[in-house]
Structure formats: structure tokens, C-alpha cells
Amino acid sequence: MTAHVEPPSAVGAGGRDSRLGPLIITLFALYARGERNWLSVASVIRLMADLGVEGQAVRSAVSRLKRRGVLRGERHEGAAGYAVCDGTLEVLEDGDTRIFERNRATAGDGWLVVVFSVPESERDKRHALRTALTRLGFGTAAPGVWVAPGILADETRRTLQRLGLTPYVDIFTGDHFAYGDLSAKVRTWWDLDELTALYAGFLERYRPVSERAAAAAIPAREAFGIYLPMLTEWRRLPYRDPGLPLSLLPPDWMGETAGALFEELDKTLREPARAHALAVIHAPQGTLRA
Predict the structure, then answer these.
(1) Disulfide check for 243: which of 59, 104, 187, 239 has CB 3.0–4.6 Å away?
(2) 63 with 24: CB under 8 angstroms?
(3) Please, where are the H alpha helices in the chain?
(4) Tens digit of each residue's pLDDT (9 = 90 or more) over 59-80
(5) Whole-angstrom Cα distance, residue 277 to residue 33?
(6) Model confidence over 135-146: pLDDT tens digits?
């Protein structure tokens, strides 16, 4: 039986599917960095077409990413294309560790606590701080007090420096000394029920792919069509679950099962997906329609 994975987007020319931007970022993260940090317009449109996305929808999504400072337009040897902006490259490099290494804290790693104070006249900085800490996977221990596993200290410092937010922040590391059941507190600092539901959805969608791949090799183009949306869906989960110690999580934490499935799919699909992508990227420009 053929495993079916719902395509992440099948929007028309005027569509604004919110998942399309993350898919394009994943495409550039996987393949542009090894190609002089550049992909041609034609190859991006062709590869996204393999996911069922129309060319005009791709152009619109890329334009939004350019306005956000994620991508920039560049021409190489007369061909139009896009490169990843420097700040985004730094974010992707941090993401490589978070996504593929799946580091998990232990009780001995302690905690990272961030507190900040922002003048009312700079409310945009307050919003930027909250957004940055949420994306890093911090939980909220109390109003204005954010907490994360100690293993995130270096990444947090780099992120806040990159965003120019350090004048508003103090960062502390240490142990939880008292009082109460820390595992119960973790349930209030992070929404573990929501995380469990996200992991369950990932397992439901991609277990059939794993079973199919175990029975027979998946062709390269199809592997690409599965791998890119799978990685796009997965890459947000290690940020929502910032590697909390297993001793503080519910028994048989579903994140471990989902993580093992991700590693298996990454091992199985990464190379055939890459082979297909590079065949398109390196095809003569005249053979690709932009």
C-alpha cells in the first residue's frame, strides 16, 4: 500500500498559505548553502512544483520573505535568483544543532533564567524579546520571568546579541532550589499537552512512510516531496520542546518516539531527496521554466 502524506500546500496563484514561507526557507536551508548560497528562480519554482505549489504562489511567498529580510535577490551569470541574508544564515546554523542533534538536558544541567525590563516608550522591543524567547523554547515561570534548560545558554546569548536586545536583559544560570514539585511546575511553564498533540500528529503522518521505506526504496523525486515538508514540520518541534530533562516529563514521553522516527526518516530520505534537488538545481537554465 502506498503511504500518502498530505502536501503542505496546494494554493493557487493568489494563495497565502502560511506554510509556504517555511517550506521555502527549508528548501534554501537544505540546498542553497552548499550552492554558493544561491538558487535560481527557475529551480526554486520547479522544486516547489514537485510539492504541488503553483509558480505564482511561490513568487508571492518569496516576495514576502524578501520584504522580511530573509532572502535577497541576486543574479549569477545572468540568471535571476535568491540568496539567504546573513542574519538568516546565522539562525539556520543554530537550527542545525537544535534540529539534527536533538540535545536533551539532564537535571544536572540546571536552568537558564531571563528577566527583562523595557521602557514603555519601546514596547516594540518588549514584543521582540517575548517573540525571541518563545521561539527559543523558553517557558514562562512568572510575569517577566522566562526559564529554559541550561543547555540553551549559548544559543540564547547569541540570539539576543544578534537582535540587539541585550541592553534590556539579564540572564542567570543555576539550580531550582525550592519549593514544590519541579515536574508539576514544568507543566505550568510549558504546554506539554499541546506538545504531545504535535508529536502525535507527526507520528500519525510519517509512520506509514517509514513502514513503506522499510519495504522498498522510495524514488528520488517522491523522497524529495516527502522529505522537505517532513523536515519543515519537524524543525519547529525542537523549539517548542527545548530538550527538557526526561526526569521532569511524563513517562514514555512521546517526543522521544517522534524524535527516533525523525532520525530514521532523515537517514532514509535525505540523500535521495538531495539527489533530486541537485539534479534540478544543476540542470541547464534553458531546460527549466520560471
Answers:
(1) 104
(2) no
(3) 20-27, 41-49, 55-67, 86-96, 123-136, 153-162, 182-189, 192-215, 220-234, 237-240, 254-281
(4) 999 999 999 999 999 999 889 9
(5) 13
(6) 999 999 988 899
